[in-house]
Each structure stands twice: as C-alpha cells, then as structure tokens.
Design brief:
The protein has 159 residues and is mostly helical. Helix content is 48%, strand content 10%.
Length: 159
Amino acid sequence: MSTASGDGGAEIDQVNIQLWSHGVVATDPPAEYPELATTPEWRQAMVVAREKRALTQTQLGSSVGTSQNIISLIESGGIGSSTFILPICRKLKIAPPQFYESDEQRLWAELGYLLQTKSKKQFRRAIALVEAIVEDTDDAASGTDRVATLGDTARKPSE
C-alpha cells in the first residue's frame, strides 16, 4: 500500500484515493481493458441499448465500476476514449466501436455481430455461405469448375 504525506505529516492511503475533477469521479476498471476511442455512431448505439434495457446512467456506471458522470461524458462525446468501453459493451451487449474505410465494411461488421449475438448456429451458416460464394467467385475467375473440387464422388463430366 503506498502512502503520501501532506503538509501536516499525516499519511494518506493512495489506494483509497479517487480522482476528482469538476465533480467527475474517475475510477479505474480492471487493467485488462484497453483504452478504446468511440465514434458518434457507437455512442448513439450505447444510449439506445442503455435505454432499451431501462438502465439509468447511474445504474450502468455502477455495473461497470464508474460514475454516472463518466457515463454521461462518454455518451455525449465529452470523453473521446476510455477503458470503460469494453465493460460497457459487455453489459449492454453491443459491439465495440469500430473504424471503417467504407459503409460496406461497417455494414458487414454489424451484420456479423448481429448474427453472432443472436444465434451461433445461424452465424456459422452465414459464414459458410459467404465462404462458398467467395470460393465460387475465385473458381470462376481462375477458370476451374466447382464440380471438380467436390472430391472423388463428384467428377467433371467427360467432354
């Protein structure tokens, strides 16, 4: 336990000190959480998910180990990044903020996350379908016949 002395020589227990700044309590989540930046879209999704679950900012903050003020600042964009983002995502069951080069990349990621959280079985089916489509596209581009790749039981008809 670390201690510090003030002017009067009294020792202060550093473990029990919380940072106070303009009335905002900043507490640290467990060290395994990285600091992640947020996006306006993610912050909007956070608010929608919190309200959908009928959680107040205070309740959400309490459940992830921080204050209502920090939750409010994250939602409003007053804090651009935080180590509380992953705990919030897990509590609200939303994807972490992502940064994409195009809308198509964003839509694919959102679709994948939605499928994975709704049904692992459907997610695996969707992945298999996409892989088959990509394989067919690759085969068509290389001039090979899909039938020839199915194994010994399926052979390309003789010409």
